[in-house]
């Protein structure tokens, strides 16, 4: 059986010079973009290990004054990056978990069970994705401010998480609906023959099958919420609740007084690491999730 599998494997395509020449412009653009991004990230990393004097004199890459790892310690503790980092981690993690718990069953029902108004709901979700948040932010802020739920820290966190979840529901549901469409219904049919309840069928059988799609949409939501700025600017009323985007903006404004640019770049690297690590270790999951579900 193993030998047959090896024989049935598709042989690699022979080198085609004409095809590679046609793809050459794309290769050049891709290489230039990667090189440009690598140079920028490398400079920021070097600046985070330098001093403000090195940054202003243009000698960042020479490391004349050595490597200053204390910039990261200073940024983490003295510049409140630890607070911003923890807040964003709470917001992003809680929002992503709630989005999966809400949108996965919602998308499954929309895809698998025909009912009156289903197409209207699907079209409404798709249309909602095209509505900028700025169009509804004023009435939304007015209602929340008048309700008085922003008075204490805990309720402020809950409101912000609820807003993150609400704004991501259309995208997450639409993504998972398209993914459930590629999952064969034979799994549910077999479970129904064995007497399995539809709810149990979803959580025990179908839900594990969409792991690739769940991971992909969770990563996209996590990065989007991690970098979110506008909602936080309006609904965060305390320095102790600021996420990383809002915290970095306040640090940039404070640079005119402190001048600690090396600490700022160290903060940027700290904030950048979570999303970079996600892409680095879960790139195959992302690509697999974007290609669709399981057929058969």
Outline:
The chain has 296 residues and is an all-alpha fold. The chain contains 14 helices and no strands. 75% of the residues lie in helices and 0% in strands.
How does this model look, in words?
Helix content is 75%, strand content 0%. The N terminus is likely disordered.
What keywords describe this structure?
mainly alpha
Secondary structure topology:
Layout: H1 2-8, H2 17-48, H3 52-57, H4 70-77, H5 81-112, H6 118-128, H7 137-147, H8 153-180, H9 186-193, H10 198-209, H11 211-226, H12 230-235, H13 244-258, H14 261-290
Helix pairs in contact: 2-14, 4-14, 5-8, 5-11, 5-13, 6-8, 8-11, 9-10, 11-14, 13-14
β-sheet strand percentage: under 5%
- What is the number of beta strands? 0
Roughly how many Å is the radius of gyration? 24 Å
Give the overall silhouette.
globular
Topology as a string of helices (H) and strands (E): HHHHHHHHHHHHHH
| CA-CA gap between termini | 21 Å
Which regions have little confidence, pLDDT < 50, spanning 5+ residues? Answer: 1-8
What percent of residues adopt helix (DSSP H or I)?
Answer: over 70%
> By helix and strand content, what is the structural category?
mainly alpha
Main pleated-sheet profile: none
Number of helices: 14
